[in-house]
Write a structure and sequence with these properties.
alpha+beta; Glutaredoxin; seven-stranded mixed β-sheet; two-stranded antiparallel ribbon; 5 helices; 9 strands; globular; Thioredoxin-like_sf
């Protein structure tokens, strides 16, 4: 009986460890190395209305398909209070192209952070790209407003019909409800450290 209790406790703890944030939850905080060799924290964005947090990488074909769209999102929404912050959760030993020097070479105008601490687990990100729209909530917190895909056409930007993320931001700006708040992220599975 004691072994069974111990196993149940271990199982329950593992479920908590694998838990992902849900829409409406407080966003987990982070402080990670950026490609400009500074550390960037979620708290650095306390003056913003929100943050477009995208777990992505260099090697995944889907991440490559979305690269220009991610740049366009930052260009379009940074001045409106919704900058992009990208996080690379992949192990560069397994995937050399996801190494820090390759991240630096991207030259993004937004932070591109190395997740060597497993922040992706706290969010429950499992694909690249995987989006979390964070909305300012109180003095130093953000809440999760949307989780999922950027749009409905991972492989071809010219075929996009539903811009899930942009529609979510527009709803927030109008003061209306985000719909949908959750979509399925399409991409490569995360290859963690």
């Amino acid at each position: 009986m004691r072994k069974m209790s111990t196993l149940l406790l271990m199982f329950a703890l593992s479920l908590v460890a694998m838990a992902q944030v849900q829409v409406g939850d407080v966003a987990p905080k982070f402080k990670l190395l950026n490609t400009d060799y500074t550390e960037v924290a979620l708290e650095d964005y306390n003056e913003q209305e929100g943050v477009i947090l995208i777990f992505t990488c260099n090697h995944c074909p889907y991440a490559k398909f979305y690269e220009e769209r991610i740049k366009q999102l930052h260009s379009a929404y940074k001045s409106q209070g919704f900058p992009v912050v990208a996080i690379n959760p992949n192990d560069s030993v397994k995937y050399k192209e996801d190494g820090f020097s390759y991240m630096v070479d991207k030259g993004y105008e937004f932070p591109y952070l190395l997740d060597n601490e497993g922040i992706y687990k706290a969010y429950g990100a499992n694909k690249t790209p995987h989006v979390f729209l964070l909305l300012k909530s109180g003095a130093d917190n953000f809440k999760v407003g949307y989780i999922g895909a950027i749009d409905d056409s991972p492989q071809d930007a010219s075929e996009v019909q539903l811009k899930y993320l942009e529609n979510a931001i527009k709803a927030v700006k109008k003061g209306t409800a985000i719909n949908p708040t959750l979509t399925k992220a399409i991409g490569c599975s995360i290859k963690p450290f």
